Amino acid sequence: MRLLTAVLRTIRHSRRLAVGLIILGLMVLLAVFSPLIVHAIGGGSDPIEVAAYEKWLVPGPDHLLGTDQYGRDVFAMVVSAMSVSLQIGAIAGVISTVAGVIVAFVAGYKGGWIDGVLSTFTGILLVIPTFPLLIALSAYAKNVSLFQVGVMISIFSWPFAAKTIRSQVLSLRSRPYVDLARVSKARDLEIIVTELLPNLLPFIGVGFASSALGAIFGLVGLEVIGLGPGGVIDLGQIIFNAISTGALTLGAWPMFVVPIVLLTLLFAALNMINIGLEEVYNPRLRGVAGE
Amino acid sequence: MKSELELRGVQQRFHARGVEGGYITAVDDVSFTLAASPPQVVSLVGQSGSGKSTIARNVLGLQKPTAGSVLYGGKDIFKLSRAEYDEYRRDVQPVFQDPYAIFNPFYRVDRALWKAVKKFGLASTRATGLELIEESLRAVRLEPENVLGRYPHQLSGGQRQRIMLARVHMLRPSFIIADEPVSMLDAQVRKHFLDILLDFQREHGMTTLFITHDLSTVYYLGGEVMVITKGSIVERGPVSTVMHEPSHPYTKLLLDSIPQPDPDARWTTRINVDELDEEEKTDAPATAPETPVI
Ligand SMILES: Nc1ncnc2c1ncn2[C@@H]1O[C@H](COP(=O)(O)OP(=O)(O)OP(=O)(O)O)[C@@H](O)[C@H]1O
Ligand SMILES: [Mg+2]
Fold it and tell me: Signal sequence: where (chain A) (predicted)?
């Protein structure tokens, strides 16, 4: 509850943060309602089915973004692909952030040998070349689901989150206000949750955003080499499709441009949220903003 | 409330790279006793890096010494039962050096006081809690409406440090461990702070371990003084004795390195301040402070 008011207060103080959240919110809304939208476009039948319509229709009132080489409605494809991309981002973002935060807090707050072991482990994962391994894993596990790909990507992205957050925990845990909490009989977990965590929200946000973006683009990469999860279309696949079929020369530019614009918007929104959080939480910047 | 806080052969080592043995000894076989009655001020002076803050952390139970023990009422503070620990926690309270870093920037300053109320069960209802907080704020000469509901960066250093004193006032510990509490305050605010501390001693019977590197503050507070150098306490005695007849060569060195607050002793170099006030021993300007509420 107190966290909620804090969040509201935070948003009030940064226009960037508000804009970023609004863009992200709209995209999430679009993704949530994508089945309904796709259904409406199809008007009873599935608009993403192969040969649902004629091939390479140019954008028009019936097909806002035209159709592709299989006669699928591009608008419907983009809407559901965005939902897929956001899902993979959310899955990998949540898993790696939660894992990263837990490891970072245990290592950073407890210190000593626990920190040694965890940091070494994180370090090893960090230097493993991620993408080749991801390829190997996906090739091995045929017909993986979206969730499984998300988990696989998370395995490699949580150490980044853990590393950034751990260094922050290290610098925060020796703050005098932590000492004050300790002489006020606060327990370790309470200190972590009420004293450290709120101050780390911006870093956790950054960790989440970079893991999510990493996963979204990681999936794009997997799609390119044909190792993506079966039966789903994400934004990367549409872009790849557009490139490989030369859609641009056929006048089907939306197939290429729209997914890229969406990815860029997503990228911008997540970054604005990060910068906005930083702005609000950095007390010096806050003073300038005139709280 | 126990009557005694004792350090017995406390040693604190820290791992350090590039030094002989791979560690430094910040506190080396330190023993002393603080008595709750009669309430007193015991100053601990020494230069930077001599181990003063480390001792404070040991006494507050924030850092377990590598050898020796800190005893509260004759028992090792790291081996107390639940009830004894609760008593120790309430009875030994700090005032830290940096009045800004002591507050979590995420919360309003009230929280530090409410935490104390709740954790130590000082009040059963919100109304009595608020009453208590307001009473304690007034005791340190703060107007509750000027500080409550504010964020730390909206208050001055002096205000923030006095909120910490208000917290101490609420808890009424027998022992205050004050680690350079005035080093970041200007001269006038500093005097204010020290006066409140002396009030606490007189009115509420609190004993203070006052850590400082500033001898003029030691003079002002009076009571006893301990001199520490390189992790060892080399001298202890009443302020007047130690200051006038230092027995350890380091104490002499320390005394020689500061401007004499003795009006008969003249500076050899030119100084701008007209006359040092013998009573205040601070160079507080005669003009009013910039803000009416310090
Ligand atoms: N957590 C720590 N890890 C490693 N070394 C430490 C740690 N805390 C203190 N030290 C070292 O112990 C020595 C004593 O430090 P301490 O902070 O107690 O000195 P101090 O007397 O309080 O100095 P100052 O007047 O500057 O505050 C210093 O050499 C310091 O570098
Ligand atoms: Mg110190």
Answer: none
Q: To probe the interface with A, which of B106, B115, B167 has the most A CB atoms within 10 Å? A: B106
Q: How far is the CA of B63 from the centre of ligand 1 (A)?
A: 12
Spell out the domain ranges in chain A.
2-285
Q: CATH homologous superfamily for B4-282?
A: P-loop containing nucleotide triphosphate hydrolases (3.40.50.300)
Strands B224-229 and B232-238 turn out to be antiparallel
Nearest atom within ligand 1 for CA of residue B16: 4
Q: Quick check: helix, strand or coil at residue B164?
A: helix
Structure tokens at B33: 């006793």
Residue B74: strand pairing partners: none
Predicted TM-score (pTM) of the model is 0.77
Tokens of B152: 């730390």
Side-chain half-sphere exposure of B184, counting CA atoms within 13 A: 18
Task: Determine the distance separating the centroid of ligand 1 and the alpha carbon of A182, expressed in angstroms.
Answer: 20
- pLDDT tens-place string over residues A55-113: 787 787 777 788 888 888 888 889 999 999 999 999 999 999 999 999 998 888 887 88
β-sheet with B92-95: strand ranges across = B92-95, B175-179, B207-212, B41-45, B224-229, B232-238
- Whether the complex's predicted ipTM surpasses the cut of 0.90: no
Which superfamily, per CATH, for A2-285? MetI-like (1.10.3720.10)
